[in-house]
């Protein structure tokens, strides 16, 4: 398992008429946090695409615990949970500036060929980086 922390501020366009962050933004938050985890182990996502791979999301699950608002500082703790076959799993814990857990999530992605979208094993450089940072 690999953990990574990513912090950001809620911007006004992400809020809804109720003054809270609209639920659709959580997918974006977690996608950014996921690729920042990859970047932290030496794999900018663009390199995965340049190597001929894509990682579409195949499953997402969210648990909304508390609301949050414009200008709030949030921190996502992302965990690369497992890589097995063509799939990779991540979990997320989202905290507000009071360190209160406000949301949890899980995503499952699949490695596919960029040209044919057929499921495939992850590239060696991804597997090697995950193995290297998992053992630390």
Structural account:
With 136 residues, the chain is α+β, with helices and mostly antiparallel strands. The protein has one domain: Hotdog Thioesterase (Thiol Ester Dehydrase, Chain A, Roll). The protein is 24% helix and 38% strand. The chain has helices spanning 25-40, 45-50, 124-134, and strands at 2-9, 53-54, 57-64, 73-84, 87-95, 101-110, 112-113. It has a five-stranded antiparallel sheet, with helices on one face. The protein has a two-stranded antiparallel ribbon with strand order 2-7. Strand 4 (73-84) and strand 5 form a beta hairpin. The protein is globular, with a radius of gyration of 16 Å.
Short account of what is shown:
It is built from three helices and seven strands, in the order βααββββββα.
Question: What are the secondary-structure elements, in order, as H or E?
Answer: EHHEEEEEEH
By CATH, the superfamily comes out as Hotdog Thioesterase
Structural class: alpha+beta
Shape designation: globular
CATH architecture: Roll
Low-confidence stretches: none
Straight-line N-to-C gap: 9 Å
Percent in helix: 10-25%
The biggest sheet, with number of strands, parallel, antiparallel or mixed sense and barrel status, is: 5 strands, antiparallel
């Amino acid at each position: 398992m690999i953990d990574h922390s990513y912090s950001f501020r809620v911007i006004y366009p992400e809020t809804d008429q109720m003054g809270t962050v609209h639920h659709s933004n959580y997918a974006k938050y977690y996608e950014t946090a996921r690729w920042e985890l990859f970047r932290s182990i030496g794999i900018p996502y663009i390199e995965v695409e340049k190597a001929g791979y894509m990682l579409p999301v195949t499953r997402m699950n969210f648990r909304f615990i508390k609301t949050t608002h414009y200008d709030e500082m949030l921190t996502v703790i992302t965990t690369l949970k497992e890589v097995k076959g063509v799939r990779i799993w991540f979990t997320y814990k989202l905290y507000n500036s009071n360190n209160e857990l406000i949301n949890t999530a899980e995503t499952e992605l699949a490695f596919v060929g960029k040209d044919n979208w057929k499921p495939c094993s992850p590239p060696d450089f991804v597997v090697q980086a995950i193995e290297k940072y998992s053992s630390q």
